[in-house]
Amino acid sequence: MDEVAETLQLITLILVGVGAFLWWRAMQARSHRLKLQTTPNYPLGRLADMEELPARAEVLAEAAAGPEGLLTSPYSQTECVWFRVEVVHHHYSDETGDRLELSPVFDLHSHQPFTLTDVTGSALCRPHWVEVEHADLVHDRFDEGVVPPTDALSPPHLEDAERGVVTASTKVAGPAALTPGCSFREWVIPPGERIFLRAFPHRDDDGGVVLMGGEDEPMTISTHTEQELIREDRGKEVLGFTALPVTLVLLVFALLLG
C-alpha cells in the first residue's frame, strides 16, 4: 500500500508541475489578450491623416514588397517579405556521452522593411523588434551527422536534385530525437498575406506612417486575426486556470492517502 501511495504522490507531483506550467502560460495569455483588447484598431488611411499618432495601434493589412523589393528565404528560396531561420544542433551530452541534447545554434529573422496596404492607404513596417505568430513553415529538414554551420543564412546540405526548389521538406525532423545532426527550419510571410499587427506608429522623414516595435515591447505580427488570437488566449486561460487547482486538490488527496 505504501508503494502505491508513493507512486500516486509522485504522479500527482508531476501533474502539479504540468499544472503550474499551464498556469504560467495562462497568465502570459491573459496579458497578451488584454493588450489586444485595449489597443484600438485603425485603417491605414486614418493613421496617415491623423495629426498626432496614437501610442499603439492595431491594423489588419496585406503584406507587400518593401523599398528594397521582395526577399528570398535562404533555405527554401521562397519569395517573401519576412523570414525566420532556426538551426538546432542535436548532439550527445558532453558529460554522459549517451544522451542527445538540443543546442540552439541560430534563431534569426530578416529586418528589411516591407509595405502594408489596405483599401484606405499604405504604411511601412520595420520588423526589428518583433514577435511573429503563425507564420508559414516552408522548410523543415533534419540532416544526420551534420556539424553546426557557421552562417545561418547558408542553405543546409541539399542533394543536387533538391537545389532551387521552392519548398524543401525532406528528411523532416522526425529522427532528430534519436540521431545526431542538425535540424533546419524556416518560416516566411509571403507577399499578399493578410496579417494582423499591434505596433507603435511613427512618421518617417517624408511624413509617412511607419509601424515598428520596441526592445521592451516588440511588435506583434500574426497571420491570424485579432479575434482568432483572443480565442486562442482564452482557451489557454481556461486550461491553465483550471488545471493547477485541480492538480493541487489531487496532491492533497494523495498526501492524505500516504
> How large is the radius of gyration?
23 Å
Outline the low-pLDDT stretches: 160-176
Mean pLDDT: 83
Largest sheet: 5 strands, mixed, barrel
Taken in chain order, the helices and strands follow as: HHEEEEEEEEEEEEEH
The total of helices stands at 3
Tell me the overall shape. flat
Distance between the termini: 9 Å
**What is the oligomer described by this structure?**
single chain
Q: Structural class of the helix and strand makeup? A: alpha+beta
Helix content range of the residues, please? 25-40%
Got a strand count?
13
Going across the major beta sheet, what is the strand order?
Answer: 1-6-7-12-11
Q: How is the topology of this model organized?
A:
Blueprint: H1 2-38, H2 44-49, E1 57-64, E2 71-72, E3 79-80, E4 82-92, E5 100-109, E6 114-118, E7 121-126, E8 130-133, E9 136-144, E10 181-189, E11 194-203, E12 209-212, E13 219-222, H3 226-257
Parallel strand pairs: 7-12, 8-13
Antiparallel strand pairs: 1-6, 1-11, 2-3, 4-5, 4-10, 6-7, 9-10, 11-12, 11-13
Would you kindly provide a written description of the structure presented here, covering whatever features stand out?
The protein is of the alpha+beta class and 258 residues long. It folds into two domains: 1-38 and 226-258; 44-224, no CATH class. Helices cover 29% and strands 33% of the residues. It contains three helices and 13 strands. Strands 1-6-7-12-11 form a five-stranded mixed beta barrel. The longest helix has 37 residues, at 2-38. The protein is flat. It starts with a helix and ends with a helix. The model is unreliable at 160-176 (pLDDT under 50). It is found in: Membrane. It is an enzyme of class 2 (transferase). Its EC number is 2.3.2.27. It catalyses: S-ubiquitinyl-[E2 ubiquitin-conjugating enzyme]-L-cysteine + [acceptor protein]-L-lysine = [E2 ubiquitin-conjugating enzyme]-L-cysteine + N(6)-ubiquitinyl-[acceptor protein]-L-lysine. One of its GO terms (cellular component) is membrane.
